[in-house]
Design brief:
two-stranded antiparallel ribbon, 19 helices, mainly alpha, about 475 residues, single chain
Length: about 475
């Protein structure tokens, strides 16, 4: 009885909550170990955290300009498609679906399960099978919510953003109190050069940038944003500055209470922190951290489903995934598609190996997207953009991204080679299926299956264009 399309339901507050909720997740509670391990010392790890924050701001500003220039949803995918062409955009989509997104979702899900169960098994570590079971249950809950309602997903994200800030505050405040009382012994010889290994630094940056990742989330839902020309830059700038300050204070608090050996030995740094500094909250903080990870899962599903939705609409993904539920107005097929891959990666994966595995592909394509901004400026100098960043920002960000990707082959050749192979495997798929027109004999059963699934899921094509 009414037009079926994705409504504009994301206000400035919800955009801010989406960014905060996506950035402040499992990263700040699991990445300190990875950053410290690969940077070698407390001082260099703090430098890495601050540098990652500045790089995130550079990338966020580039994406804010892209979001005002290109009016479609889809994030990295649509920016690469519109600026660099269909082949690199399909390779991103291929790597995102088979490597980047399921591995990222598995990392966040495993962190959710670990922190939720940690208080029940302390001081022992939670059993791995139990962690994976709870991780999957949490992921399935978020999947169901995103299939049910856009409004309730956005409301949950707003509520959990408040929980995330509260969780950071409960770590920052006791650490700052101890630091003010003169507990600075863990900062002695903070810049110990003997422990610094240069070829491991890319992995330190991957861990740090993983914690900040999420600054690009509004670009995935651009068509559902209210007043995107104003709200995208405003939400991006305020949220990234907030997270940089929060992360720096959180890491200083970690090191004030825990020594380097304690951080490296801890499977859950925030839990170890509370055990040492604030025992009365030993059962509260892990739950807050788990809820924080829950919010990150929600934001990830919410945004990636829009990538598949847009890719299907652009003809590079099966047409079923550009369809919307007739009553719920959610991209139901796109939301449900990640279910099997995430399940498999949670069952077989380890957090830190998964992090290195997907980081290579993610930062390669983010670098290509900001390179696309430079290309788009040169091709369309006449195009007026309501938000424009100085040219040195996309140039420097692109160079750093691609240089870090190249250096990572020396740091972790096995996982990076797997990620590279995943990207390259998309070449034959593109030229055999996407680039070439399918014959009429092949098309008939494919569309028959799509029609049957469309009836089963009660979904239809979007009736009007909102971009």
């Amino acid at each position: 009885e009414e037009a079926v399309f994705l409504r504009k339901k994301i206000t400035l507050v919800r955009a801010f909550s989406l960014l905060i909720g996506s950035m402040v997740g499992s990263g700040i509670f699991i990445s300190p170990k990875g950053v410290l391990k690969n940077s070698g010392s407390v001082g260099f790890s703090l430098v890495v955290w601050f540098t990652c924050g500045i790089l995130s701001m550079f990338g966020a500003l580039c994406y804010a300009e892209l979001g005002t220039r290109i009016t479609k949803s889809g994030g990295h995918y649509i920016y690469i498609l519109e600026t660099l062409g269909p082949l690199p955009s399909f390779l991103f989509l291929w790597a995102e679906f088979f490597a980047i997104r399921p591995a990222n979702s598995a990392v966040v899900s495993l962190a959710f399960g670990r922190y939720l169960l940690e208080p029940f098994f302390a001081p022992c570590a939670a059993p791995v099978p139990a962690v994976k079971l709870v991780s999957l249950l949490g992921y399935y809950m978020v999947l169901t919510l995103n299939s049910w309602s856009v409004t309730w997903s956005a409301r949950l994200q707003t509520a959990l953003s408040v929980v995330k800030i509260l969780a950071l505050a409960l770590i920052i405040v006791p650490g700052m109190i101890l630091l003010a009382q003169g507990h600075t012994e863990n900062f002695q010889d903070a810049f110990d050069r003997q422990a610094l290994v240069l070829d491991k630094l890319p992995l330190a940056f991957y861990a740090g940038m993983f914690a900040y990742s999420g600054w690009f989330q509004t670009s995935f839902v651009r068509e559902e944003l209210v007043r995107p020309e104003r709200n995208i830059p405003l939400a991006v700038i305020v949220s990234v500055i907030t997270v940089i300050v929060g992360y720096m204070l959180t890491n200083v608090s970690y090191y004030t209470v825990l020594g380097t050996q304690d951080v490296l030995a801890s499977p859950a740094v925030a839990v170890s922190f509370v055990q040492r500094a604030f025992k009365s909250l030993i059962s509260v903080v892990p739950v807050l951290v788990a809820l924080s990870c829950f919010g990150t899962m929600n934001g990830g599903i919410f945004t990636f489903s829009r990538t598949l939705f847009v890719a299907s609409r652009e003809g590079q993904w099966p047409p079923l995934f550009s369809m919307i539920h007739i009553r719920r107005h959610t991209p139901l097929p796109a939301v449900m598609l990640m279910f099997p891959l995430v399940t498999a990666m949670v069952c077989i994966g380890d957090i830190y190996h998964l992090m290195n595995f997907f980081s290579f592909s993610r930062w390669l394509f983010i670098g290509l997207a900001t390179l696309g901004l430079i290309v788009h400026r040169l091709r369309h100098p006449e195009l007026h953009s309501p938000f424009k960043v100085p040219l040195f920002i996309p140039i420097s960000f692109t160079i750093i991204c691609l240089f870090t990707v190249a250096m990572s082959f020396y740091s972790d050749p096995v996982n990076i080679s797997i990620g590279c192979t995943t990207v390259l495997s998309g070449f034959p798929v593109y030229y055999l299926i996407i680039h070439r027109q399918m014959s009429s004999r092949c098309r008939s059963p494919f569309y028959y299956l799509t029609h049957k699934l469309q009836l089963l899921l009660e979904v239809v094509q979007q009736e009007i264009k909102t971009y």
